[in-house]
Amino acid sequence: MNEATRLVFVTLSIPAPLSLEAAHAAVVALAGLSRQPQIVIEALGNNRHVRWRIGTPVRHRHQVIEVLRTHLPGLVVDEPKPLAPGPRADVAAKIRVRSRSVVEGSLAHESTESVTRGVLGALAVAGRHERVHLQVILGPRKTPQLPPQQLRGGDRTLAVAKLREFRFGCAIRVAATAADDDRARHLAERVIAAVRGLNAPTAQLTATRMATTSFDRARAPWFWTTTLSVSEVVALTAWPIAHRDAAPLPGVPSRHPKLLPASASTLKEGRTVGVSTAQPERPIAISVRDSLSGIAITGPTGVGKSNLLGQFALADIAAGRGLVVIDPKGDLIDDILQRADESRLDDIAVVDATDSAPIGINGLVGATDPDLAADTTLGVFHSLWADAWGPRTQDVLHASLLTLARRGDASIAMLPLLLTNPGFRRSIVGRVAREDPMGLGGFWAWWESLSDNEQAQATAPLLRRVRPILLRPGLRGILGQRRPKFDLSDVFTKRRILLVSLEKGKIGPEAAALLGSLIVSQLWTATLARAAQSPQSRHPVTILIDEVQDYLRLPGDIGDALAQARGLGVGYTLAHQHLGQLPKSIREAVTANARTRIAFQLSHPDAREFASLTSGQLEPADFETLPAFHAYAQILHQNTPGPWVSVTTTKMPDPVRSAASIRRRSRERYGQPLSEVEADLLSLTERRTVRESFGRTKRSDTEGGTS
């Protein structure tokens, strides 16, 4: 056998239920192929499931597959493979049609759907280590023709029924393998019994034992003793033929979730999303460049969302890219630390509010534009505390943040001191008042003129929010560092890896929201600084944010910011549990600017929303019935959204070290002991303050006036 005629097989994932009309059209099309290639149709039962394969000579493979794809909507075909060497069965039988009339009678193909159900049930009996096959080999074709003139009456009617369709010379075989021959024979006999449901008064199916060799190699018989019409072949394929509203077929995957194969445009290399659910050996990936256009991941707890984020992070680390991960709980951070590439461990900085020597985050120092740093921080506070925000709060907080930022070595933890400690305040504002007498100088002069009561009323809404957070030592340790050892801009300039473990369950959701939002906003400031670099020097940086609705608080329009980030070489991967969590501004921004979408199992409202985005490819039930670690993805390719594809995410590799060892390494390199941070803050109140008078004299409380 030369290479061109060598048989190769592909596995078919046929969407169920398949209409009888579609199956009939597919077999008619096979009959019409030029050169009449030999075609092997197999149904295989194993582990209570049924699969289908089709074999064809190498040179006809593409032709046959295209015919099937044309007529079987949603068909998924895997990579072609030759038959495995060696035996495939312990017992085998061949089935022939015995005609009981002077002309070839037809099998009862009008019973195709009921017989198919029975055959599938028999195939699905096979257990985990058992296999049972139904094999139909299609040989020489015969075109439709009129019956001989001499036939009359019933014989003519029978002949018309058979001869009006294309016909094939066929070989029908059943084979099985099991722990012992008796069990294998039992499996084969069940399939033969189910096939006999096609027996008709003028045509009977008979089975006899045969050597397994011909089945194993799918060899054509020496003589084609059985001739079947297209309708009869369809009845013997065991394809999942049923009415749309019929009960589920045995051994056949449920109609939902629907399998969507990967298109030719879907990459196999890049940032790996997973593998094709329909073609398990086919990777699904997105290019680094297209990742910069944003990735949105939706799915509730427990479906595999964090696992996918971890895979993305590990890939970025291994590729040497700058990376930030914002994790509300901390489990994902530990997963990454346990598996990160050994060569990047010194690049890792772990921010953790429960650490005894935390890494500091200070957006008020190190910025090239202190006023921008103050405005960015103000925007975070306003976004978090909009319900308690008024004109006076805006005025006081803006001036306070500007004052601290212009000092050059202040931190947010100094905010309560600035507003409540007159001596400390005078030591801070003296210089900035002299440098900006019309702005901050005027504000602080007005502030000093207020009575203690008026100052308390003006600061009460703000301090009610800030103090409870700063009462937590861990938060003070992070936000109180005036000179942090880690610079967030290093993520962009030195390809550092920043892992933020917010530990929401330990420090509280409000404190976690403040810390996470401050970090994200400061990253945005560092992103904008990339505009001064040439496009060629902007290596890709990834920012992964879980529970994005709690931490994405950027100045201005979020959609514009995400679009601008793409041009600056920064890609956001944004994850959340359901659409209802997203404020309108974030939802619109994510929809417009996260151009790769990945959806795990969804609730009905979200499933309905996502199904509407698939142009009819999917129904809400498809999203609702996804198992854990399975998803649908629409992946951007060369700036064009691709078709939706079924994805199975791969689990992260096994841990290779303890997370604690890398946390310790990060702490030693970038952290500051909490005791030192607090001693530094305490020293600010103990220093001899500068007694420098400026502005008007403060009124006493008895002089009247309220804020």
Automatic annotation (TrEMBL):
Xref: CDD domains: TrwB_TraG_TraD_VirD4 (cd01127)
Protein origin, superkingdom: Bacteria
Database matches in InterPro entries: P-loop_NTPase (IPR027417), T4SS_component (IPR051162)
Region feature Disordered, mapped onto this chain: 654-675, 688-707
Listed name of the protein: AAA-like domain-containing protein
Source organism phylogeny: Bacteria, Bacillati, Actinomycetota, Actinomycetes, Mycobacteriales
